[in-house]
Design a protein that fits this description.
With 360 residues, the chain is an alpha/beta fold. It has helices at residues 46-49, 63-80, 91-100, 113-116, 123-134, 154-170, 190-199, 220-223, 246-259, 264-284, 329-336, and strands at residues 4-5, 54-61, 84-89, 109-112, 141-145, 177-184, 202-205, 208-211, 237-241, 289-295, 299-306, 339-345, 348-356. The strands form 2 sheets. The chain has an 8-stranded mixed sheet with strand order 1-4-3-5-6-2-7-8, sandwiched between helices. A 5-stranded antiparallel sheet has the order 9-10-11-13-12, sandwiched between helices. Strand 10 (289-295) and strand 11 (299-306) form a beta hairpin. Helix 6 packs parallel to helix 7 (190-199) and helix 10 packs antiparallel against helix 11.
């Protein structure tokens, strides 16, 4: 995958032929598989790994110095244990860690979160690929992932927080591995830090580590599916879609995308995503779907509503099995769009597809 820097000695990643935001799997281009030793769980807090389980931790740090001081020892410890280590943060922080860890960083995999996690729904599949390639035969691995930063848009922030909560669902019982998620207290509001305490079982700062008293895993699976979505200021297009109106909907999407100067590849991707989701609604959501389109400051947004209900908290975030006939629409939408919001209310399901007007 473009943006992944493999450790020294690994083969060069295969370059993607399409635009940056499409990410079909992070570790697929990380080269060789790491062969570390299994972690000795007696060396850590018994609650941390329990039955060889996933440990999800939030690190509260202040500024660049605090980031390096908190993350560098975690990375160094993993390398010394001969574990596979993947760090997914922004490019400037990758440079800081490389400078802090000479002789160590060449045994670490790095990827730019601005590429991998532009759409937060792509991050869980990326970690899944990393585990599939490295956490084999009971071997321990660890990662660092920072999906939340101060310049995230409000919609991106909500979906990034949802991602953090869903990590606990996606990787429960997945094996012995640790994921440390940094939060910059000098830039992020208190409400974001409070939400981090709810979505992470363990918290760390310059005073040490502790279990999070606010973490409640049993409330995670479906709670974020019912979060309200703000109404758009002005709807530009609205259409009731059935099997005969899918073509008309695609025309409307293309015309508005071209009106606002969207690149052809982006236009094609948004048309395809909207068509896949709407077709799925027509087939499985009651025979028709309600389509709306508008723009905000950053994106062109397509919304599809139907009378169906979504009861899978990880819908669109897990790669469909190759022998499965259906279930690919939401996955495909997440690969094509810069942001996808999925909700399920008593009145039915809602999917919003965001395509940004410009690249990062």
């Amino acid at each position: 995958m473009v943006g992944v820097v493999p450790p020294a000695g690994a083969r060069a990643p295969v370059r993607a032929v399409r635009r940056e935001p499409r990410h079909w799997g992070l570790a697929a281009s990380c080269g060789r598989r790491y062969r570390g030793r299994p972690m000795n769980t007696t060396e850590t807090d018994p609650r941390s790994l329990g039955e060889a389980d996933f440990r999800h931790e939030a690190l509260f740090y202040e500024g660049d110095e605090g980031f390096v001081a908190g993350i560098a020892p975690f990375v160094r410890d993993g390398v010394e244990r001969d574990e596979a280590v993947l760090v997914v943060v922004n490019a400037s922080k990758i440079d800081m860690l490389r400078a802090e860890l000479p002789g160590v960083s060449d045994r670490v995999m790095f990827a730019d979160m601005a590429q991998v996690g532009r759409n937060p729904a792509r991050i869980i599949p990326a970690w899944r690929d990393f585990l599939d390639r490295n956490a084999v035969d009971g071997l321990a691995v660890r990662g660092v992932g920072e999906p939340i930063w101060a310049t995230r848009t409000p919609a991106e922030l909500v979906e990034s927080q949802r991602h953090e909560a869903l990590l606990n669902v996606a990787f429960a019982g997945s094996g012995t591995w640790r994921l440390l998620c940094p939060y910059d207290t000098s830039e992020l509001p208190q409400a974001v830090l409070d939400e981090a305490a709810r979505s992470h079982a363990f918290l760390a700062d310059d005073r040490g580590e502790r279990p999070s008293a606010d973490f409640h895993a049993e409330q995670m699976p479906l709670s974020h599916l019912t979060d309200e979505l703000p109404e758009p200021p002005r709807v530009l297009e609205a259409l009731v879609v059935d099997g005969l109106q899918l073509g008309r909907m695609r025309v409307l999407v293309a015309a508005r995308a071209q009106q606002f100067g969207m690149e052809q590849q982006q236009t094609d991707d948004l048309m395809l995503a909207a068509s896949e989701v709407a077709a799925n609604s027509v087939v499985h959501g009651g025979g028709t779907a309600e389509f709306r389109l508008w723009r905000d400051a950053q994106s062109l947004v397509c919304e599809i509503r139907d009378s169906g209900h979504i009861d899978d908290a990880l819908a669109g975030r897990e790669r469909p099995a190759t022998d499965r006939l259906g279930g690919r629409g939401l996955w495909l939408a997440n690969q094509l769009c810069d942001l996808v919001q999925i909700r399920s209310f008593p009145s039915g399901g809602v999917v919003r597809l965001h395509m940004s007007f410009s690249e990062i």
